[in-house]
Amino acid sequence: MFLLDDVVMAPFKGIFWIFKEIHDAAQQEQAGESDAITASLSELYMKLDTGQITEAEFDAQEKILLDRLDRLQAQEKTSPKPEEKKKRAKPRRQAAAAKKVYSHP
After folding, report:
1. N or C end of the chain: which has fewer CB within 10 A?
2. 3-state SS assignment for residue 105
């Protein structure tokens, strides 16, 4: 019986795994982009300190980079990580199981 269940569910498990991998890759790319923006900001400050760019050029480029960084951080806050979902779901399951066990007089 369990073998039949595994055979029937295999395509769905495979598709779920593919979507999970795509999601993980997107999160890693987003984290890499945030690191790249931070590095660009550091380089921009160095150029200003050494006099390679003017204050007006610095302000314009800094605003663009900070806006991109703010958007990325806002996206990270709105999409919970898979670990957080699992942590939140566990107490609910335990509470539901406790209700089932203790609900009978």
Report:
1. C
2. coil
Angle made by CA atoms 17, 19, 20, in degrees to the nearest 5: 65
DSSP H helices, the chain, are 2-50, 55-78, 82-102
pLDDT for the residue 44: 92
Neighbouring residues of 23: CB distance < 8 A, sequence distance ≥ 6: 82
What does the alpha-carbon distance between residue 34 and residue 78 come to, in Å, rounded to a whole number? 16
Determine which of 14-18, 44-48, 74-78, 83-87 has the lowest per-residue pLDDT on average: 83-87
Q: How many residues does the chain have?
A: 105
Residue 11 in tokens: 């395509």
